Amino acid sequence: xxxxxxxxxxxxxxxxxxxxxxxxxxxxxxxxxxxxxxxxxxxxxxxxxxxxxxxxxxxxxxxxxxxxxxxxxxxxxxxxxxxxxxxxxxxxxxxxxxxxxxxxxxxxxxxxxxxxxxxxxxxxxxxxxxxxxxxxxxxxxxxxxxxxxxxxxxxxxxxxxxxxxxxxxxxxxxxxxxxxxxxxxxxxxxxxxxxxxxxxxxxxxxxxxxxxxxxxxxxxxxxxxxxxxxxxxxxxxxxxxxxxxxxxxxxxxxxxxxxxxxxxxxxxxxxxxxxxxxxxxxxxxxxxxxxxxxxxxxxxxxxxxxxxxxxxxxxxxxxxxxxxxxxxxxxxxxxxxxxxxxxxxxxxxxxxxxxxxxxxxxxxxxxxxxxxx
Length: 373
Hints:
The chain is an all-alpha fold. It has one domain. It contains 15 helices and no strands.
């Protein structure tokens, strides 16, 4: 199978360095002019990259726990996304130095406790990502079913531990930006975004690989159709949580809750607030609803790109209204985002290069190749 070959798609080192340098220059300039704006961008982009890595892990866990066979040929793409965890860890831990610009409560909190919690939050995905990748690597050379059973076991434990640790992490990193506001749906809302981002990223990379012939014998229109259905379903799930949280707070109209949305629907933020819902659900829903769209590589590719842009906007609206008086998306933000994008590209492409693109001894591979709609 041509899909089993290793794939050469690593980002050029010179380009990665140039993108990173642009980001470092933007950070240096921004810290001297407007520190709050820079730390806001670093939190937004750092959490975005973290969501990408966790989204890949969730994609794998869901497929294993559901016994899905159709996705066996694209599992390595989701595993490659886990390679961005070290990048996300460095990005998020660096926020320790800018906590005073982001969190009103940071001055009263012991510094060692903040750093310790952040490190603990990364320990969970690091441990499980390592175990999952090790079990998956063994399947390249061994058909022993113990490796598959281990991945199912790891996935089951991971989703339980992840539900607890990520809920706390999303509260610490995002919800406490406004210590006066609370929502019992917040962790589920952020989780839904992580799930959408993971599916969109897997879809985009799979389509790009398929277009270049790397997965020609493994992925067909039926597999793309399933990816399209997943993307449609999870964007709708995100919209359901988004709308539920908004309507419940709007209807009760309690001052301690409504303030969160009063700011985001004010004159400066309202256009972005409306665009957020359009980009993350309305447009993808309308485009992916027809069956032919979910089987079109071109359509899936651009919808995935749109959703990934929407995910950045959603995180931006979670963070920025609490740290800035008005929206600011300019050259500084673009330069930092480009730098982070270069690092992610390099990490994912390098991970894809290191191992065969398809696990040869996956017990579900035969059913995957026979997949029909």
